[in-house]
Structures are given as structure tokens and as C-alpha cells.
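Q: How would the C-alpha cells look for this protein?
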Amino acid sequence: AGQLAESGGGSVQAGGSLRLSCVASEYTSGSYCMAWFRQAPGKEREGIAVIGFGGSPLYADSVKGRFTISRDNRRNTIYLLMNSLKPEDTAMYYCAAGRALSLGEQWYQDWGQGTQVTVSS
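A: Here is the predicted structure in C-alpha cell form.
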């Protein structure tokens, strides 16, 4: 298996934007689906965006219209552009690689260490 390394998290005020990156060595050249999950304190991990090898994205209702997932296979990198951030978006954000275009955690075998996003009101 390859490695997944997230970056780009930080603190931002409500209404602001952040772009997360995930360097996904050995995944972007294959037929992997790449996803972003998040986990807030005291809550279960939630799948929020996934993109297939051909680029087709799927979003959770909680982020639809505000977040955009993309992939650059030449740079082995997955991105999550987050606009109109809300305090409830505060969480640890994880990049994951799997074989199904799904937001279900059970379909993903490999995970990064996460990057923290904090949104203040």
C-alpha cells in the first residue's frame, strides 16, 4: 500500500475558506476512489466527498454546494476546497483510498493521519 498525507488544515472564521491537500502516492495511478472523511469530537467519522478515477464526485448533503473535491493524478494529489465554512465543519479531516465510489467508511482500506480544521463563529 502507498501513503496518504494530508495538509492544509487550520483555523478560520465562519464564512471563510480552506483548501486541503492529500498527497496519495501509489493511489492516483490506479483505479482507486479517493475520499475525504471528517470526525468531530464525540461524533462518528463521516464521509463527506469522494471522487472516482475518472473524476466523478459524490458529496454528503452537509457539504454539497460548499465543498469541492478534485484530483490531480499527475501530482498524485487530492484536494478538498472548502468554502462558506461553518463552526459545525470543525473536525479532523482524513483522506482515504478505496475501491468503491461510496461515502461509507467500510469501503476504505488506507487512511492518512488527518489534518485539523477549526471554524470559529
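The radius of gyration is 13 Å.

The chain is about 0% helix and 50% strand.

Upvote if useful.
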